[in-house]
Amino acid sequence: AGHLPHPVFETNRGGQATYHGPGQLVGYPILDLRNYGQDLHVYLRALEEMIIGVCGKFGVTAHRREGLTGAWIEERKIASIGVGVRHWISMHGFALNVCGDLGPFQEITPCGIAGVMPGTAA
Questions:
Q1: DSSP 32
Q2: What single-letter DSSP state applies at residue 105?
Q3: Residue 50 has pLDDT above 80, yes or no
Q4: What sign for the dihedral angle of Cα 35, 45, 69, 48?
Q5: Is 16 left (phi over 0), alpha (psi -120 to 50) or beta?
Q6: 84 with 91: CB under 8 angstroms?
Q7: What stretches of the chain adopt beta strand conformation (E)?
Q8: Contact present, 116 and 110 (Cβ < 8 Å)
Q9: How many angstroms separate the CA atoms of 119 and 99, rounded?
Q10: Which strand (E) or helix (H) includes residue 71?
């Protein structure tokens, strides 16, 4: 990680590597998932649905891709989701690419998925 142009911080969230920077809307909800059925997959799908809904409100058609967490515009990933859970309390969350330079994503393998190109709503 010493060759990267940005600082690297290791966390205990899922999703492997991601980048947070200018032009992203980042949300890290903290919820007691015991109040929501104690199902991490349902929580992940709810985050995806919320992001897809927000995109739609701004005229951007986003969707899910089978077997891949996040939100997509065609084949480009507009939002990454990486959560951690401890004692059923959620931490970390999502990053929605609204606008800005996506170049830093080329320095990593976003979400551990080779060949994925990020996209923005702008």
A1: B
A2: G
A3: yes
A4: negative
A5: left
A6: yes
A7: 24-27, 63-65, 68-73, 76-86, 89-97, 117-118
A8: yes
A9: 9
A10: strand 68-73
Residue 75: the pLDDT is: 87
Q: Which residues are catalytic?
A: 111
| The residue type at 51 | I
Residue in the structure block whose two tokens are 């939100």: 71
* Cβ atoms within 10 Å, residue 32: 11
Q: How many helices (H) and strands (E) does the chain have?
A: 1, 6
Distance CA 9, CA 47 (A): 23
Nearest to 69 by CA among 60, 78, 80: 80
pLDDT in tens, 58-105: 999 999 999 888 999 988 889 989 888 999 999 989 999 888 777 666
For the question of whether the overall pTM of this predicted structure is more than 0.85, the answer is: no
Looking at this protein, which amino acid is placed at residue 41? H
**Spatial contact of 100 and 19, defined as CB atoms under 8 Å apart:** no
Name the one residue in this structure whose structure tokens are 């290791």: 10
